[in-house]
Design brief:
Mean pLDDT is 77; it is low at 129-138. This protein has helices at 3-7, 10-38, 43-65, 68-73, 101-125, 144-169, 173-200, 202-223, 230-264; strands spanning 77-82, 96-100, 133-134, 140-141. It is built from nine helices and four strands; from the N terminus they run H-H-H-H-E-E-H-E-E-H-H-H-H. The N and C termini lie far apart (74 Å). It is mainly alpha-helical. 26% of the residues are buried. A hairpin with a 5-residue loop joins strand 3 (133-134) and strand 4. The protein has one domain. The strands form two sheets. A two-stranded antiparallel ribbon has the order 1-2. Strands 3-4 form a two-stranded antiparallel ribbon.
Length: 265
Amino acid sequence: MDIAALLSDPAAWAALITLIVMEVVLGIDNLIFISILSNKLPEHQRAKARRIGIMMALVMRLALLSTLAFIVGLVQPVFTLPWQGPIGEHGEPMWELAFSWRDIILIAGGLFLVWKATTEIHEKVEPGDGHGVMDTGGRVVTNMGAAIFQIILLDLVFSIDSILTAVGMTDHLPIMFAAVIITVILMLVAANPLANFINNNPTVVMLALGFLLMIGAVLIADGFGFHVPKGYIYAAMAFSAAAEGLNMLARKATSKKAIAADTKH
């Protein structure tokens, strides 16, 4: 189907909108990680690191879309391991764990995300034990090269997950390209406000790190073949974010009352 036919096809527009929504939801994880990591840099380097990280995500996703045959091949089993479960009639294990390159990448990325989230939480709880230079706000400052390298690693993991989702939702390559480009533009627009919001609210930082820890565990489980429906994950994240929003409103109201009381006296 050519571009003109796609533009006049309501089903194509519906697929594009649906895919953009899915890509935005999947991109939230990536954006949270980029925001937390870039906030560890000196202030004048943060926006640049976010732009580089998000543009690298775009480059990776477009490159992966250009090699769909390679992407499809990533889900083919590379090796299998017998699973210690019930034995079949002929003495063979009833289940086997088959690992593809996608599974290996997800497991490696999940382990990295769990390790990174855990070390970040440790730095927040015990800032004196962090590796790096402390700024005037008591935050550990990393260097641009290290931050970009870690962002690229996670970009790769999230990009593969994102593109495989796109491939499963539509057969039209132009729709996939359009959805990815629009999603990355939205990420670029949201990057600085989200990062500033996270940076200005310490409790939100800890909540976001908890999200990353959970996402890392889900990636590992997915790599081992135990699929956790993402709807449950994002519902839990939305509920936690709503609860934290109420806490922030309560703290703000308490602060206003305290200021009002001080003014009267």
